[in-house]
Each structure stands twice: as C-alpha cells, then as structure tokens.
Amino acid sequence: MDASVSYVFENQSRFIEELIEFCKIPSISAKSEHRKDCRRAAQFVLDQLTGMGLEASLEETPGNPIILAKYTRGDDAPTLLIYGHYDVQPEEPLDLWHSSPFEPVVREGDLIARGASDDKGQIFAHIKAVETLLKTAGEIPVNIVFLIEGEEETASANLEEFIAANRERLEADVAVISDSSQYGPGMPAICYGLRGICGEEIRVEGAKQDLHSGSYGGAVPNPCNILCEIVAQLKDAKGRIAIPGFYDDVLPLEKWEREAFASLPWDDEKYRADLGLQALCGEEEYSTIERKWGRPTLDVNGVFGGYMGEGSKTIIPAWAGAKITMRLVPNQKPKTISRLFREYVAQLAPDAVKLTFLAAHGGGPVLVPRDARFMNEAVQALRFGFGRDPVFIREGGSIPIVSTMNEQLGVNTLLLGFGLPDDNAHGPNEKFNLKDFERGILTSMKLLQICGQ
Ligand code: BES
Ligand code: ZN
User: Fold this and answer.
1) Catalytic position from the list 18, 37, 87, 179
2) Residue 161 — pLDDT band, cuts 50, 70, 90?
3) Structurally, how many domains does the chain consist of?
4) Nearest to 345, CA basis, from 360, 328, 329
5) Distance 399 CA to ligand 1 centre (A)
6) Which of 12, 250, 368, 397 could pair with 192 as two cysteines, CB 3.0-4.6 Å apart?
7) What SS3 class is residue 323?
C-alpha cells in the first residue's frame, strides 16, 4: 500500500489537471443545447478508463451515453459496482459566480467549478484510485464495474431501462457511490439513507392568447391566479402536505434513530445565520435534521407565466406553470405519490381552465441496512483515507438509481461522500476541496484492497 500512497501524492497535480479538464466540459443534462457536451464528457470518461487498461464501452441510450467499464480478475473475488455521473446541473445564476462555472480555478485549496463536487470530482477519485492500484500493485483483489451516466441530474430515466436490459453485465456484490458529502469538515460519513423524489410540472391554460386585463378582466379566468390557488392548497397553514393519502406509507422515525440524529453536533442558530435566513421552519414535532433526512416534503421549484419583464404590462396571461418536487421517505413510492398528486390537483382546478400534467420523474427512497455487506470495510477505508472514524448519517437529497439498483440488481449501496455539505452543489461557486479529493482516492484504494481480502 505504501507505494500506492506515494503514487497518489506524486501524481496529485496531474490528477488535478485532468479533473480540471473534466470540469471544463459543460455537460448540463437539463439543457438540450448541451447534448454534444454531455457526449464529450462521456468520451472523456471513456478515454480515462480505457487509458488505464480497462475494458470500457460507450453505451448509447435515447439520451446521453452511459459509460460501462470492467476490471475482471477472473476468479471468485467479489465485485464492486462503482456508480457516478458526469452530468451537472445548470450553472445559473451566472452573476453570483466569482469565476466562470466552466473555467475551473483553484482557490484556497478548493477547486471551483460546476460539477467539481457533484459529481465529477467524486467519481474521479475512484477512477484515480483504480489507476493508482493498477500502476503500482499491477492488480486489484476485487472485480470492478464502473457505471457512469449522464442523466442523473434529470432523474436517470434511460439508466433505469439500461439496468433492466443489462442485469448480467452489472452483476455485483455491492454498489459504491460517492455523490453525497461528509457530515462536516473532518467528519467523514457513511450515508445509509436517501430521500426519494417525485417531480411534477403542471400547466394551466386559459384563453388562446394574452388578453387586455381591463377589457377582459373579471369576465375570463386568469391562469396565473388559478395556478397560485392550486399551489396554495398543496400545503396547509401548518406546512402539512394536503394531498390525501400522501403520508400513508411514511415509515415513522424510530426512537434509536432520533437519538442517533440528536447525538450529532448541530447548531440551528448557525445554520440559520449561514443561510442568511430570518428563521427556520418545518414540521413542529421534528428537529432540523429529522425534517431534512427523515420527513417528506413538497416544494415549488419555480412558478412562471404572464409578464415577467421590466415595468408593467396589463394582461391576463394565456397560461401559467409550476415545477414541483416532493422528497419521499421510506416506504413512499414515486408512482403512487405522482398519482395522488395528480388526482388532487385535477380536483382543485376549475373547469374554466385546461390543466395539463407534463412528464413526471422520480426515484425511490433508500435505506441501507447497517449490517449490509462491506459496511465494516467502508468504515475502515474512510478511517484510512480521512484519519477519522465515519459517522452514520442520512441525507435529504436523492440519487434516483440507487433504489433501482437495489430492486433490479439486488445490491446494497455504500454511500461514501467525499464532498462537504457547503460545497454549493447546484448553486453558484460550487467547490470541491482538493485535500478531500486526495482523501477520497486513498479511501477508494483502501476499500478496493480490503474488500478482496
Ligand atoms: N449528489 C446529489 C444527491 C445528493 C444531494 C446526495 C445531497 C446527498 C445530499 C445528486 O447529484 C442530485 O442532486 N440528485 C438530484 C436528483 C433529481 C434531479 C432527480 C436531486 O437530489 O435533486
Ligand atoms: Zn446533483
């Protein structure tokens, strides 16, 4: 292991240069104008993996390509499936970035770029760990399958089909994913729970075109008003989601878990102040951590329609829309929640307007049993890489494919986040600490070694 560790230190600046090249590619999966960039990012990953001698392929999908690569020992060693994503979230709002999102810079030990932490830097740590072991030890004691996709940030619809059609190529004993974060600086974590997600978009249409609000106002329906009325009825005054049946399948937090959450260092006042908020809010009976990790939510991501330009424009807009996501906890199912949402909203909309539901997306919630295979190895690996024992956490975010991998491939997932909670994932000035990048490489190397012993 010593020679491998030396290799990591000696090659760290090259690793960073390569990561910078990766982060320069604006692989934004949400925007069709970036289709080619997503393909370039896929090609970058493919070149990395073939370059280190793995058998790798670019798998076409109706959307962005998937990269599959294998390191096969040919004996009965266990197989680790390492999953990550090369796509990133849109970069807006551009004016809040201190440097250009796709021109990475290193500042105070952080690499700053869209995707640096979520997820290019984190998946790159695993890639460099494998390169290091192959270059130094010449072999790795486990079989490895890399599965790196380009549509995670848009809910992995094509990957789901790919998995269903390629089960035998993806057979593994455990999945390893680094697409979450440590609990805090110097507090590595194993994440054993993720929230699921159900995303919806609704559109309310009135007249065939915008109308003069003086000439027509009062005599015709206003889609913007009606949309707001619908949205206002999704939650009650106490913040409880009003969709009938929404909470039916919610698994209540158990006493041990509430105690475990409460034992983690946490400061509501600091959290509030750091976010520039006047006050926190949420379900009364629950702590902030419980609200984020263990309770479902409904949030409007955006409402649009009508005149949004400078000055006033006296119209009754022809249409209005809203994007809404619900975060789900075990045992809620995205499909059921989508159905309940649509039934409720349909019943709220007056006959005077046309209501349309645009394509929904979803991913199931996840709970990894604490005694899952290789959990102890993951603890040891993090201890090696980060010099501390990890804490066990859940997260509020979603990685839609994790529940699918569990259901379709029968694998549990080790969620080993190398990022930090304040990496600004999805926000301006996303960053990834380069020491954490190095610690991530060491962690991955150790894991690959000890899972094969
Ligand atoms: N890396 C995140 C998931 C995540 C976020 C894990 C926070 C732990 C803490 C992932 O890339 C992501 O953002 N997923 C999306 C999925 C959605 C677009 C379907 C999410 O959670 O919003
Ligand atoms: Zn993300």
Assistant:
1) 87
2) very high
3) 2
4) 360
5) 5
6) 368
7) strand
The residue from 323, 343, 363 where one domain ends is 363
Residue 17 bears catalytic tag = no
Which contacts of 49-55 are long-range, i.e. CB under 8 A and separated by 24 or more positions? 49/127, 49/146, 52/127, 52/130, 52/131, 52/134, 52/135, 53/134, 54/130, 54/144, 54/146
pLDDT at 101: 98
In the set 119, 152, 160, 377, the catalytic residue is: 152
Q: What is the pLDDT of residues 228-240, one digit of tens each?
A: 999 999 999 898 9
Residues 6+ apart with CB under 8 A from 321: 201, 202, 203, 204, 227, 303, 304, 305
The tens digit of pLDDT for each residue in 219-273 reads 999 999 999 999 999 999 898 999 999 999 999 999 999 999 999 999 999 999 9
Does some domain include residue 274? no
Whether residue 37 has its Cβ less than 6 Å from ligand 1 = no
Average pLDDT over residues 414-418: 98
Q: Which domain holds residue 353?
A: 196-250+296-363
**CB of 399 closer than 6 A to ligand 1?**
yes
pLDDT digits (tens, 9 = 90+) for 58-88: 999 999 999 999 999 988 999 999 999 999 9
Annotation says 152 is catalytic: yes
User: What mean pLDDT do residues 320-345 have?
Assistant: 98
Could you identify the atom of ligand 1 that is nearest to the CA of residue 426? Answer: 13
Q: Indicate whether residue 179 lines ligand 1 (CB < 6 A).
A: yes
Atom of ligand 1 nearest to the CA of 156: 19
User: 189 and 87 in one domain?
Assistant: yes
Regarding pTM above 0.85, the answer is yes
Q: Which two tokens stand for residue 173?
A: 């004993």
Q: How far is the CA of 397 from the centre of ligand 2 (A)?
A: 8
CA of 106 to the centre of ligand 2 (A): 21
